[in-house]
Design brief:
The chain is 69% helix and 0% strand. Helix 3 packs antiparallel against helix 4. The two termini are 31 Å apart.
Length: 173
């Protein structure tokens, strides 16, 4: 069982924050997601799933770089400030060995939820950024996070089928 995970600031409250803080939250979320996926990939024995999780880690790193670029353009000369608030489940590296498929399934469910929340977060930022180029980038990030959600969902469903298949193999006639 995965311990309780703090779900963070609600999507309704994000509009209360200034854009600088929101970008800091987004960058922090991308860093956390990348570390989570890297840590998870280290513990997966199924090569195809491991490859997809490693790909997700790389994608989150690209998102971080894009957001840092926007931050630098909008807030010239300022270091990124990482607020204590965060969006969605704050994915942190897995600190223990996974104990069987059930833990893996639960971690993937949390990752799916985080990707879904991130997609909605970026959708909310579309109206807050000041240029059409930045609006397109927020739409792109939102769509990418939705794609990550569906990638994880497909893997989750495959693992469920595999788990059922594995259990049936041990049941006997």
């Amino acid at each position: 069982m995965v311990p309780e995970i703090d779900e963070g600031v609600s999507l309704e409250r994000i509009k209360e924050f200034p854009l600088e803080k929101l970008l800091g939250m987004a960058i922090k979320a991308e860093i956390g997601a990348k570390k989570f996926y890297e840590s998870l990939a280290e513990r997966i024995d199924i090569q195809e799933l491991k490859n997809k999780i490693e790909w997700l880690a790389g994608e989150e790193g690209k998102h971080e770089a894009l957001l840092r670029k926007i931050y630098a353009e909008m807030f010239r000369g300022k270091e990124v400030v990482f607020p204590k608030e965060h969006i969605g489940p704050e994915l942190k590296p897995v600190e223990r060995e996974l104990q069987g498929v059930q833990d893996l399934l639960e971690l993937i469910r949390w990752a799916m939820k985080a990707e879904e929340i991130a997609a909605h977060f970026y959708e909310g930022l579309i109206d807050m950024v000041d240029t059409e180029e930045k609006k397109r980038l927020m739409r792109y990030l939102s769509d990418m996070e939705k794609g990550h959600y569906y990638t994880l969902r497909a893997e989750y469903e495959l693992l469920l089928d595999w788990e059922m298949y594995s259990q049936m193999m041990h049941v006997g006639p």
